[in-house]
Amino acid sequence: MGYNVDFVLERDVPELTGKxxxxxxxxxxxxxxAALLLAxxxxxxxxxxxxxxxxxxxxxxxxxxxxxxxxxxxxxxDQTSLASVKQxxxxxxxxxxxxxxxxxxxxxxxxxxxxxxxxxxxxxxxxHVAHAxxxxxxxxxxxxxxxxxxxxxxxxxxxxxxILAPRGHGIVFDELRTPQNYxxxxxxxxxxxxxxxxxxxxxxxxxxxxxxxxxVIHPGESNTSxxxxxxxxxxxxxxxxxxxxxxxxxxxxxxxxxxxGVPKDKVISGEMYxxxxxxxxxxxxxxxxEKLAARLWDWTEEELKAWL
Length: 308
What we know:
308 residues, alpha/beta, 8-stranded mixed sheet, SDR_fam, oxidoreductase activity
């Protein structure tokens, strides 16, 4: 790509002195990579969520071994359980009155059919519903931070895989509480549906909460554990369309790191950016469907009502 990580950090991410950053899924993959890089810019506090405390402690040790003095905290959070997500949010709010960056990074991809503990199709539940609850719980502190300090942002990860979202629907609302075990591409279409939801929800956040900057990013294709753990069939689906486009693993998180540091007057809230910082040209008809986005928002609000 013509540049290295030190250049990306120096060019795109200013010092984060005094700032508080929360990264979901920060114990591995892209989230861990982002945590390691952002810690070099010295935020006051960095929270990483996940289920594996041993993995979290490994990342925390690496951050400190690299010389960062950032206070790093592991926040246990199982995104298959809304009770766990609520607990993580409540724990954060009990400790902090400031949040500058919420990076909605955690996710699953092309996993076998199944349901979350709350009964949602597992990819939609983990990738969208859990993040929506966390975002809604933390929006007041994000809004307060934006008002006080002039900037707060949500960085949410989507994927160009949304091109595979169910034709004729985009999102099949009536069956989100089933395993949806039917489409030809199966796990990838369920994944695509959830990634479309991430994008649409980000666009609605930008419209409804303009005080907070929402940046939707496609990280690009890299051989993280999400890809490495796929079946051979699903690996073929990922690799064949992306021959010559795969990023080295260490570059997979660069776009979301860029989104943390880019001046807010250089981006349009609610829009999607591809690596690194390039406005997407990959929108489908569903991505720009305002009625679908509004329906997703209303559906999500109803589902989260008991947890807010």
